[in-house]
Amino acid sequence: MHRRFDSTDRLPPPITASEGDKREDGGGPATGVVVKPRPKTKKPAMYKVLMLNDDYTPMEFVVHVLERFFQKSRDEATRIMMHVHRRGVGVCGVYTYEVAETKVTQVMDLARQNQHPLQCTIEKE
Ligand code: TYC
Predict the structure, then answer these.
(1) Nearest one of 82, 62, 19 to 70, comparing CA atoms
(2) Is ligand 1 within 6 A of the CB of residue 62?
(3) Three-class SS string for 65-100?
(4) Could you read off the pLDDT of 76-120 as tens digits, one per residue?
């Protein structure tokens, strides 16, 4: 006759992994693939701040802007300014979006205050 299962019944031994399969990777056969643990971080997108040439902004003003807002030495600032003067466009620096946007605003505000037509833009890297 049938009877209900109760706590006095003996249970079979639990199933355990054999010695060679004791890995903490969720099981499955060994593949020989070694994975390097990697923190789950993403590099932020980076943006170039570009300076554009024009016929009116004084060279000295552009050099000043590069020193003041882009932390360039006088030599480096002069080199970038001359590159823009000759080639039409040049990179002032590469930043995260918020920083790049702030730099552009600072440059454009100072240029406007001094009535120079200097233009600065952002380009995704
Ligand atoms: N072309 C300008 C001049 O001859 C100088 C200049 C350089 C202007 C770089 C803008 O982004 C610039 N006075």
Answers:
(1) 62
(2) yes
(3) HHHHHHCCCHHHHHHHHHHHHHHCEEEEEEECHHHH
(4) 999 999 999 999 999 999 999 999 999 999 999 999 999 999 999
Asked if residue 51 has its Cβ within 6 Å of ligand 1, the reply is yes
> What is the tens place of the pLDDT at every residue in 59-68?
999 999 999 9
pTM (2 d.p.): 0.73
| Ligand 1 contact, 117 CB (< 6 A) | no
**Bridge partner residues of 122 (DSSP):** 49
Instruction: Kindly report the average pLDDT of the chain as a whole number.
Output: 85
Q: Which atom of ligand 1 is nearest to the CA of 84?
A: 9
Sequential DSSP letters for 29-62: --------------PPP-EEEEEE--SSS-HHHH
Long-range contacts for 101-105 (Cβ within 8 Å, ≥24 apart)? Answer: 103/49, 103/69, 103/70, 104/49
